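Q: How would the C-alpha cells look for this protein?
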Amino acid sequence: KPALLFAPGVKESKWLCDMLNRHDIPAAHIDGSDVYIDGEEHGSDPEKREEVIDRLKSGEIKVICNRFVMREGIDIPELYHIILATPIGSLASYVQVVGRVLRNHPDIDKVIVQDHAGNFWRHGSPNQDRDWSDFFYMTNNQASETRKKEIEKGDVDNPIVCPKCMMVRKSGIKCPRCGYTHSENRRMVIQRNGQLVSLDGPPVSKVNVKRKSDSETQWIRCYYRCSRSGRTFNQAYALFVKEQGYHPPRDLRFMPRNDIDWYERCERVKHDDLR
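A: Here is the predicted structure in C-alpha cell form.
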C-alpha cells in the first residue's frame, strides 16, 4: 500500500530506493533538486513531482523515499504506511512527519508507523494528546525540551513493551494482546554490532534536584544578573547549576510559572508571571 520512507540523507534515500526496487518493490526518490525514478534522475519540477505522487496513489509505485522534503506541504490521504529510517531530533518535525500518514481517508481505518530510530521513545506516540495551544507557538527546541522535562519530572507515562509479544501499551501490568503479566518497564535499544538487550526504566534519566537553605538567594542573584545581560531563564538556570554544582527545584521565587517562559529573556517576563 502507499508508503513514505524518511531516510537520514539524500544518498541514503536513493540507496534505499534502489534496494526496494531490487526486491521488486517499486520505489522512487524525491529531494529538493531531483526526482529519482526508474533508475534515472530528473530535474525537480512540480509536474514531475505530481507524476510521482499520482503513481503512488494509483499503486504503480509503492514507496516514495526522501530525506525531509516531504514532511510538510503535501496532502496524500491515501498513505497507509510511513517508515522512519532516521532519527528525528525535533518533536515538531516528528509531529509533522507522522502527520503525513494520519490524514483522514474513508477507506483506511488504521495506518502503520514503522520506526527504526527510537523516535517513538524520544517523542511519544503519534496518538498522544498534546497541549496544542502552547505547542503551536513553540520553536523546535522549545517543544523538544518541554517533552524532555516532562519525562524527567515523571509527568509522562513511559510506554511499556510486553517482553513476550512485543506489543507496546501505555500503562497497566497485563498485556491486552497476549495476557502476559509483568511489572518492569522495558524498552529495546537499536542494534549495531552485538546482542540486543533490554533497558529498564524511562528513556531520559531524572535530574537529581536539591533544595538547600540558600538556594532561593543564589537563584535570585542569578536571575538579576541574567536580566541585566539579556539571558533567558534557561540560561540563568544553567548558570546556577554551573556555579552551585546542583539542580535547584523550579518553584523558587522569581522563577516562571509557565514552562514556555523558561525560553524567554528574564527581563521580558513580567513579575506577575513569576513565582
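The helical segments are 10-22, 46-58, 91-99, 119-123, 132-135, 140-153, 215-229, 233-244.

The first helix runs from residue 10 to 22.

Upvote if useful.
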